[in-house]
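cache lookup: miss for this entity combination. No prior model stored, computing from scratch. Input as submitted by user K.M.:
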Amino acid sequence: MSMVITIKQALSQAQRLQGVSEGWRLESEILLAHVLNCERETLFAWPAQELSRQQADAYQNMMQRRERGEPIAYITGKKAFWDFELKVNPQVLIPRPETELLVETAINLLQPKCSAALRLADLGTGSGAIALALARHRKHWRITAVDISPQALALAAENAQLLQVENIEFCESSWCDGLDARAYDLVAANPPYVAVGDRHLQQGDLRFEPSIALAAEASGLSHLQEIVKKCRKILKKEAWLLLEHGFDQKQAVSNLLRDAGYSNISCAVDLAGVDRLTCAQSPG
Ligand code: GLN
């Protein structure tokens, strides 16, 4: 039987997470705020507030899961991305802040013709992060969100419903197979690009994420290669392809694009200063 504890006492257990995360203090606050269904700030306004037995048990359970390394986003079932929150589960990659660079870049590239009824695709949508950010930005854009995993698509569709986004169609497919030819003004993808066998796959959050969303053959380039090649069919002439990739894949991705006839190839760095995103225009 658990004892009655206060918010302050619950937060004093934060050190239990020291072994899993540098952000242990913040993480215990996130978990407690989640259990109490309140903002983090509220925890500091009411330190003497007692947790109900049920809340205390739920908090203990979540702290234990985190101690074992499970990602915070899977424990709380949610993750903030761009200007909204997504439901997430272990069937999908947890959206990363660096992927917001892809959204920002897509919006900037399309700015000159943003009032047109553009068609965009997000290949390997996972939780729907990129597709939803773009769909919310312009209601008259039509987005195709693709994933090979029916579980991922179901979650992405649920997220669209929760966010009341209606300008996305969902498509179960391998990359762009079956999508309309010469139809898209922009295609974005954050495919798996970590090399199979890379030691990072055995560290931190990545251990709990689906390897289908993370790992790729050919030094992590196999899916990027396939996408570059296949997307020529679905992109309109001079339409944009945006690819997220690994910190050391800039040159390889640029070569793939050049060899496939794309032009205006450029790479953008993320907030950590890492080469993260390469954009290019389709030969048509
Ligand atoms: N950026 C992720 C990571 O290295 C990988 C995501 C991906 O493979 N698309 O943690």
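stored under new cache key. The domain at 7-69 is CATH 1.10.8 (Helicase, Ruva Protein; domain 3).
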